[in-house]
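Progress note, sequence design subtask.
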């Protein structure tokens, strides 16, 4: 599989640059309080903040977490070999993102969302609880880079990418956009109501730092590995 290029999605939306300073930098403390106070299930992201650059409330999705909403909260993550699947119901304008580290694994049952087999089901189920229709879901997929030097014989990013694309194909969830593989880590922002994804490929100098963060998160995971629009900013 070759590195994907930005392209029009199923709705014909064009890739474009993230607008800078497009809105006044006005915080929304009441909205932030509502996000922090809402009930959460295990595995749901919980680090909320105001993103001054994006001019909106945001949530950071860490490895093993997911987040679903029907408003355009900025759902943010940074990816190396990990995958983020962004699912969206175009009719009901509800969407969500997960962040998983390995296709499958064995462990003590803690943080099952770190494994793709569990992460995808957790995300789909959360979307259905939020009112999405499984038949109307579409996907955008990001990550899967080879950010660890000397790991060509065990390319976790490639295995993660193959897993998520196979899963979505099996579940008949169309992939309308993707930016995967390659060697660059990525910073991703997902707006779950509008289905907009914004992805930035980070400099190779950042790859070691991203790989170190993923490795630290993986210490809690089993090492076993089984064999809208898109905008650039």
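Output:
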């Amino acid at each position: 599989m070759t590195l994907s290029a930005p392209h029009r999605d199923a709705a014909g939306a064009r890739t474009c640059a993230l607008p800078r300073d497009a809105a006044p930098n006005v915080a929304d403390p009441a909205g932030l309080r509502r996000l922090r106070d809402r009930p959460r299930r295990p595995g749901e992201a919980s680090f909320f903040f105001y993103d001054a650059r994006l001019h909106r409330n945001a949530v950071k999705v860490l490895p093993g977490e997911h987040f679903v909403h029907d408003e355009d909260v900025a759902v943010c993550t940074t990816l190396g070999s990990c995958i983020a699947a962004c699912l969206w119901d175009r009719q009901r304008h509800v969407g969500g993102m997960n962040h998983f580290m390995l296709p499958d694994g064995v462990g003590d049952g803690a943080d099952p969302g770190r494994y793709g087999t569990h992460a995808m089901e957790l995300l789909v189920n959360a979307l259905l609880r939020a009112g999405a229709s499984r038949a109307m879901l579409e996907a955008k997929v990001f990550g899967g880079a080879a950010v660890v030097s000397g790991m060509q014989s065990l390319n976790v990013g490639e295995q993660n990418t193959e897993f998520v694309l196979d899963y979505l194909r099996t579940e008949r969830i169309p992939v309308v956009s993707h930016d995967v593989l390659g060697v660059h880590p990525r910073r991703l922002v997902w707006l779950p109501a509008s289905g907009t994804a914004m992805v930035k490929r980070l400099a190779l100098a950042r790859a070691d730092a991203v790989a170190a963060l993923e490795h630290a998160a993986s210490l809690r995971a089993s090492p076993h590995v089984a064999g809208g629009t898109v905008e650039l900013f």
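The first strand starts at residue 47 and ends at 51. Work on this subtask will continue into the next period as scheduled.
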